[in-house]
């Protein structure tokens, strides 16, 4: 499976006015009730030829029901993760070994009521909350842990102190 490509992807670290980060609980994870693994940042695949900056706003609208945000920073490199062996050939349509992601910090410009997880007929998330940036690594599934650890110092200047 190591000959499979990485799926091009974007991710959003969405900060509210108080410097907290939007996290959402995946509806399809078996451990969604536990503290680790069920929660994640919005992210999603890029369409062929799509600009990453446009893709991240589109993904926000699709996943959380709003694109009321402005990009305030972009991670200086693409970050990648590999799927664990038990998910290879199953997750991501079975076509990818993992994801190559461009991450953005965004400032939420709406109200909490603008966030609508039910905007999609098949919502990816079933709950959301605002969290401290440094909490992200404690929420990540193991195979995304290195990415979340990299995002904390990269976007710390926007976080609640």
Automatic annotation (TrEMBL):
Signal peptide: none annotated. InterPro entries: Nudix_hydrolase, NUDIX_hydrolase-like_dom_sf, NUDIX_hydrolase_CS, NUDIX_hydrolase_dom, RppH. Pfam families: NUDIX (PF00293). Keywords: Hydrolase. Belongs to the Nudix hydrolase family. RppH subfamily. HAMAP family: Nudix_RppH. This is RNA pyrophosphohydrolase. It comes from Roseomonas acroporae.
